[in-house]
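Ops channel
N.P.: pipeline sanity check, posting one input/output pair.
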Protein backbone atom coordinates (compact mmCIF):
# COMPACT_ATOMS: atom_id res chain seq x y z
CA UNK A 1 0.00 0.00 0.00
CA UNK A 2 1.20 3.51 -0.82
CA UNK A 3 1.10 5.51 2.42
CA UNK A 4 1.53 9.25 2.85
CA UNK A 5 2.25 10.63 6.31
CA UNK A 6 1.74 14.35 6.83
CA UNK A 7 3.69 15.30 9.96
CA UNK A 8 2.79 18.77 11.19
CA UNK A 9 5.17 19.48 14.04
CA UNK A 10 7.78 22.15 13.47
CA UNK A 11 9.95 20.30 16.04
CA UNK A 12 12.04 17.79 14.08
CA UNK A 13 12.82 15.68 17.16
CA UNK A 14 9.55 16.30 18.97
CA UNK A 15 6.93 13.86 20.16
CA UNK A 16 4.74 14.08 17.07
CA UNK A 17 7.75 13.56 14.81
CA UNK A 18 8.66 10.48 16.86
CA UNK A 19 5.14 9.06 16.41
CA UNK A 20 5.31 9.65 12.64
CA UNK A 21 8.73 7.97 12.40
CA UNK A 22 7.53 4.96 14.43
CA UNK A 23 4.53 4.60 12.12
CA UNK A 24 6.80 4.85 9.07
CA UNK A 25 9.21 2.19 10.41
CA UNK A 26 6.38 -0.21 11.27
CA UNK A 27 4.63 0.31 7.92
CA UNK A 28 7.82 -0.20 5.93
CA UNK A 29 8.59 -3.35 7.96
CA UNK A 30 5.12 -4.59 6.97
CA UNK A 31 5.98 -4.10 3.28
CA UNK A 32 4.25 -0.78 2.59
CA UNK A 33 5.71 2.11 0.61
CA UNK A 34 5.81 5.17 2.86
CA UNK A 35 6.42 8.84 2.17
CA UNK A 36 6.71 11.10 5.20
CA UNK A 37 6.44 14.84 4.63
CA UNK A 38 7.06 17.32 7.40
CA UNK A 39 4.44 19.91 6.54
CA UNK A 40 5.49 21.75 9.70
CA UNK A 41 8.54 22.92 7.76
CA UNK A 42 6.71 23.77 4.54
CA UNK A 43 5.35 27.12 3.45
CA UNK A 44 1.71 26.32 2.75
CA UNK A 45 -0.85 29.09 2.91
CA UNK A 46 -4.49 28.59 3.75
CA UNK A 47 -7.21 28.47 1.12
CA UNK A 48 -8.09 31.91 -0.26
CA UNK A 49 -11.67 30.90 -1.17
CA UNK A 50 -11.12 32.63 -4.50
CA UNK A 51 -12.72 29.74 -6.45
CA UNK A 52 -10.02 29.95 -9.14
CA UNK A 53 -9.63 26.18 -8.81
CA UNK A 54 -13.28 25.58 -9.68
CA UNK A 55 -13.23 27.96 -12.62
CA UNK A 56 -10.25 28.95 -14.74
CA UNK A 57 -7.93 26.69 -12.76
CA UNK A 58 -9.73 23.44 -13.66
CA UNK A 59 -8.85 21.90 -10.28
CA UNK A 60 -5.51 23.66 -9.83
CA UNK A 61 -4.99 26.14 -7.01
CA UNK A 62 -3.89 29.63 -7.94
CA UNK A 63 -1.35 29.66 -5.11
CA UNK A 64 2.08 28.31 -6.01
CA UNK A 65 3.70 27.42 -2.72
CA UNK A 66 5.01 24.20 -1.15
CA UNK A 67 1.56 22.62 -1.53
CA UNK A 68 2.58 21.93 -5.14
CA UNK A 69 4.84 19.16 -3.79
CA UNK A 70 1.94 17.55 -1.95
CA UNK A 71 -0.71 17.42 -4.69
CA UNK A 72 0.94 14.54 -6.62
CA UNK A 73 1.69 12.66 -3.39
CA UNK A 74 -1.91 13.06 -2.23
CA UNK A 75 -3.16 11.89 -5.63
CA UNK A 76 -1.24 8.60 -5.36
CA UNK A 77 -1.71 7.86 -1.66
CA UNK A 78 -3.89 4.88 -0.76
CA UNK A 79 -3.60 5.58 2.96
CA UNK A 80 -3.16 8.98 4.57
CA UNK A 81 -1.79 9.39 8.07
CA UNK A 82 -2.25 12.77 9.71
CA UNK A 83 0.11 13.54 12.57
CA UNK A 84 -0.16 16.72 14.59
CA UNK A 85 0.65 18.24 17.91
CA UNK A 86 -2.41 19.51 19.70
CA UNK A 87 -1.61 22.99 20.94
CA UNK A 88 -5.10 24.24 21.58
CA UNK A 89 -7.80 21.59 21.18
CA UNK A 90 -7.60 21.03 17.43
CA UNK A 91 -5.20 20.08 14.67
CA UNK A 92 -2.19 22.35 14.36
CA UNK A 93 -2.35 25.07 11.71
CA UNK A 94 0.55 23.41 9.88
CA UNK A 95 -1.78 20.48 9.12
CA UNK A 96 -4.93 22.53 8.63
CA UNK A 97 -3.48 24.38 5.64
CA UNK A 98 -2.75 21.30 3.46
CA UNK A 99 -6.08 19.72 4.39
CA UNK A 100 -7.99 22.84 3.44
CA UNK A 101 -6.00 23.29 0.24
CA UNK A 102 -7.33 19.92 -0.96
CA UNK A 103 -10.52 21.88 -1.62
CA UNK A 104 -9.34 22.43 -5.19
CA UNK A 105 -9.42 18.68 -5.95
CA UNK A 106 -12.28 17.84 -3.53
CA UNK A 107 -10.58 14.78 -2.03
CA UNK A 108 -7.56 12.55 -2.55
CA UNK A 109 -8.80 10.14 -5.22
CA UNK A 110 -7.11 6.92 -4.09
CA UNK A 111 -7.15 7.31 -0.30
CA UNK A 112 -9.15 4.43 1.18
CA UNK A 113 -7.82 4.42 4.75
CA UNK A 114 -6.79 7.12 7.19
CA UNK A 115 -5.29 7.27 10.67
CA UNK A 116 -4.27 10.06 13.00
CA UNK A 117 -1.43 10.42 15.51
CA UNK A 118 -1.53 13.29 18.01
CA UNK A 119 0.56 14.40 20.94
CA UNK A 120 0.08 17.03 23.59
CA UNK A 121 1.45 17.95 26.98
CA UNK A 122 -2.09 17.99 28.34
CA UNK A 123 -4.67 15.24 28.82
CA UNK A 124 -8.26 15.60 27.58
CA UNK A 125 -7.52 17.99 24.71
CA UNK A 126 -8.10 15.64 21.76
CA UNK A 127 -11.89 15.78 21.26
CA UNK A 128 -11.84 18.63 18.73
CA UNK A 129 -9.08 17.05 16.65
CA UNK A 130 -10.60 13.57 16.68
CA UNK A 131 -14.03 14.93 15.71
CA UNK A 132 -12.48 16.88 12.85
CA UNK A 133 -10.55 13.81 11.75
CA UNK A 134 -13.75 11.70 11.73
CA UNK A 135 -15.46 14.36 9.61
CA UNK A 136 -12.57 14.43 7.12
CA UNK A 137 -12.63 10.64 6.81
CA UNK A 138 -16.38 10.66 6.26
CA UNK A 139 -16.25 13.46 3.70
CA UNK A 140 -13.39 11.86 1.78
CA UNK A 141 -15.00 8.41 1.97
CA UNK A 142 -11.97 6.90 3.69
CA UNK A 143 -12.07 4.26 6.40
CA UNK A 144 -10.99 5.67 9.76
CA UNK A 145 -8.64 2.98 11.08
CA UNK A 146 -8.04 4.86 14.31
CA UNK A 147 -6.22 7.46 16.30
CA UNK A 148 -3.30 7.19 18.69
CA UNK A 149 -2.89 10.02 21.17
CA UNK A 150 -0.01 10.56 23.57
CA UNK A 151 -0.09 13.00 26.45
CA UNK A 152 3.11 13.96 28.23
CA UNK A 153 3.59 10.75 30.24
CA UNK A 154 2.80 8.58 27.19
CA UNK A 155 5.22 10.18 24.75
CA UNK A 156 8.06 8.12 23.32
CA UNK A 157 7.07 5.05 25.35
CA UNK A 158 6.93 1.38 24.43
CA UNK A 159 3.17 1.39 25.10
CA UNK A 160 2.58 4.19 22.58
CA UNK A 161 4.88 2.49 20.07
CA UNK A 162 2.78 -0.68 20.45
CA UNK A 163 -0.44 1.28 19.80
CA UNK A 164 1.13 2.71 16.64
CA UNK A 165 2.21 -0.76 15.48
CA UNK A 166 -1.33 -2.06 16.12
CA UNK A 167 -2.67 0.79 13.96
CA UNK A 168 -0.29 -0.19 11.14
CA UNK A 169 -1.62 -3.75 11.28
CA UNK A 170 -5.04 -2.41 10.20
CA UNK A 171 -3.77 -1.16 6.84
Amino acid sequence: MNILILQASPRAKGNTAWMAEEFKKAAEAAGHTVTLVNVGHKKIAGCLACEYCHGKGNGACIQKDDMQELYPLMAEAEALILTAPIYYFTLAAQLQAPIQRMYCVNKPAKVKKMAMLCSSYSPNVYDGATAEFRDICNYWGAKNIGCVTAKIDEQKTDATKKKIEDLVSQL
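N.P.: looks fine end to end. Helices lie at 15-29, 67-76, 93-101, 127-140, 158-168.
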